[in-house]
C-alpha cells in the first residue's frame, strides 16, 4: 500500500515527509494504522548524527501506538482491530536476556538502528516509490501513517485506553520511570537528583516519587520544565547541578544524593562527572540520556570510584521488560497513579514534524506528540 512518512536522507539533516510504499505483513507481522507518535529526542539524535543509523533514507519514530489493520499469515495472538503500543526494543522471549528478565537487552535489538527486520539485515518493509529500501527506526517507524512491524515489537492493550496518551509508554515513560525504579533502585526515604526534565527526565521524577523518595530534586534551566516537575512529584526544582548537589547534602548530613539520574537531552561526559560528584559513598549515577555515542571518557575521580564505592549504571529503556512493564504502566495510568496527559505539551500533524522539533530545542515542550487521523 502507499502511505506517508517522515524520513531523513543524511545526517546532519532534517525530517521530510514523503510517499512510501509499504509491504503487507508476512508471518509474525502486523500492519498498523498509527494513532499517535511521540517526538522523542532520540529521533532528533538520528537527524543530527549523534546516533548513527545504518542506511538512508531512514523513516524515524520509535514511540507510538495504533490499530491493527491486517495480520500476517500464520500469526498468532493478534487480530484486525487490536490496539497496540510499540516497544522500540523487541522481545523474542527466548534469548538469554529475555529469559533472565532483561528483555530490554534482547538479542533482536542488535539491528534497532540498522533499518531492516530484526532477524534479517537484508529484509525491508518500506520502500521509496521507485523501489529503493527505506530503513525503519527500531523496525517500527512511528513517523508514518501506516507501518508493518514484527509482533515482537507490539504490545496489545485494552481498546478503551486513549492511544494518543498511552503511545508515550513505548519509550519516554518506561525509560524515565525505569531509570529511577529499576536502574537507580530508589527506595523510600532516598534523596534523588534528576538532571534534565524533558520527556524522559519528567518520568524519572515520577518514578522516584512512586518509589518513595523523600527528596526528588529536578534540575533544568527551563522554567516550564521545573514547574512541571514540581507538579509531577519533584520536591525541589533548581536550574543547575551545583545547586542540586548542595541541596542534597543539606538533606543528608553532608553525604550527598543516594542517586543521580542523568536524562539531559544531549548528554556528555561532563554531565556524568557532575552527577558522580553529587552522590554519596556507595551511591549510584544512572546514565540514561544520549549524546554523541562515539564520545569516550568521563571526568571522574578514580579514587572516588574505588574508595567511595560509587557506581555508574547505564540504563536502556529504563531496564524495562516491555511486554510486562508497558501493561503495568497502562494500568497505573488507568488508576490515576501515573500521569500521561500532563506530559503532552503540544500536538502536531505529521507535516509539522519540523516545527515539533524546533519547539523541543526551544524548551517549549515536555513531550510533543504527532496525532494522525
Key traits:
7-stranded mixed beta sheet; 373 residues; alpha/beta
Description of the molecule:
- The mean pLDDT is 97.
- The strands form three sheets. Strands 3, 5, 6, 9, 10, 17 and 18 form a seven-stranded mixed sheet that branches.
- Strand 14, helix 8 and strand 15 form a beta-alpha-beta unit.
- Helix content is 26%, strand content 25%.
- It starts with a strand and ends with a strand.
- By secondary structure, the chain is α/β, with parallel strands linked by helices.
- The protein has eleven helices and 18 strands.
Structural class based on helices, strands and sheet pairing: alpha/beta
Binned, the helix content reads 25-40%
State the separation between the terminal residues, measured CA to CA.
17 Å
- One letter per element, helices H and strands E, the order comes to EEEHEEEHEEEEHHEHEHEHEHEHEHEHE
Average pLDDT reading: 97
Low-confidence stretches: none
Instruction: Tell me the number of helical segments per DSSP (H or I, 4 or more residues long).
Output: 11
Radius of gyration: 20 Å
